[in-house]
Fold this sequence. Notes:
The chain is built from three helices and twelve strands. It is mainly beta.
Amino acid sequence: MKALEILEKALEASGGEVWQNPETLQLIGTADFSPHGLVDDAHFLHFDYYALFRVFPPENVEAHRANGKVRVDATHGEEVFFQLKFDGKKSDMVMSDVAKRYGKYFEWSNNFGFSIIRHAGKTDFETTRLADDQVEGYPCHFVQVTDPKQNVTVFGIDSQTYNIRLVQFVTELGFHHRIYSNFYAANNEPRFVQAHQMRVYFDGIKWIDIRWKDCFVNLQLPDALFKP
């Protein structure tokens, strides 16, 4: 198969039209934070509440830049670790003193990239099939997506189920990749497939391990949620 055929199968396996063109997404769960991979008491944190709220833009031509509307919350106990917002024009970061030490790792340009796969079949995008490999022991096809701004993002797509198991790209902080595991359907949309677990790495070292418990698609999210 060619790269675009693999991507089309991945989109269909993820939910087809409802997954490719969602209006909103809400993910709620917990997470373990291990900055620079450190798990001693001075560094490791467990987030009792970790949430993502997303309003998707109708078009996307730049993979590693915030677009649409985004909010990410992380709290441990009663303390806010960070609250990151983007209202479509302006970003706002509320951070604890501890979070400020790692602020550059939370910038949108170092984390955005996954959603570009939804647009990869459009004009002005380039797709390239790379050598097959494995992700967590699952045989996967690897496909490179180059957006119109010449940003490169690589996806690892399960060769049997066509679940998207990996995304990777280069950032100003180094090499970033994420592994997705344990796929399930969204609470309110059985055709929208979401990974229950997402692990985030910088230069091969795990920084955060997220476990999404709830996933809701196309619920109305008020503008006030994203205002700085």
